[in-house]
Specification:
Blueprint (H helix, E strand, L loop, with lengths): L1 E4 L2 E3 L5 E7 L8 E7 L6 E6 L5 E3 L7 E6 L4 E6 L8 E8 L15 E2 L3 E5 L2
Parallel strand pairs: 2-11
Antiparallel strand pairs: 1-3, 3-8, 4-5, 4-9, 5-6, 7-8, 9-10, 9-11
């Protein structure tokens, strides 16, 4: 139902753009979040875009990552720049019909998840 793509291997300081699409949902009607999980670490909320246009980021990616939505393509993007080795993780997109925005990082609020795409930042 959700597909995340666009991951890959990039050098520190490089950029990648992740895409989240759905064959089932009209993403513009949902809150769409990006999460990541590194080996041995908990799942972490990275960013979220609301159906009304609200946008939030975790502090470690502010000023480096940009979330956006293209309604015509039914796609949510995560543009990642100035990538660091600590950004290495599997990145997932997820949807929620409603969110308590003060707890947007709580993955339990999200109903549907994509399969994940690997991002590796290494020289």
């Amino acid at each position: 139902q959700l597909q995340a793509s666009g991951g890959g291997l990039v050098q520190p300081g490089g950029s990648l753009r992740l895409s989240c699409t759905s064959s089932r949902f009209t993403l513009a009607a949902y809150q769409v979040g990006w999460f990541r999980q590194a080996p041995g670490k908990e799942r972490e909320g990275v960013s979220c875009i609301g159906s009304s246009g609200t946008i939030v980021y975790t502090d470690t990616v502010k000023d480096r990552f940009t979330i956006s939505r293209d309604g015509a393509k039914n796609t949510v993007y995560l543009q990642m720049t100035s990538l660091k080795p600590e950004d290495t993780a599997i990145y997932y997109c997820a949807t929620a019909e409603t969110l308590v925005w003060t707890a947007w990082k709580d993955w339990r609020q999200y109903d549907d998840w994509g399969q994940g795409t690997q991002v590796t930042v290494s020289s």
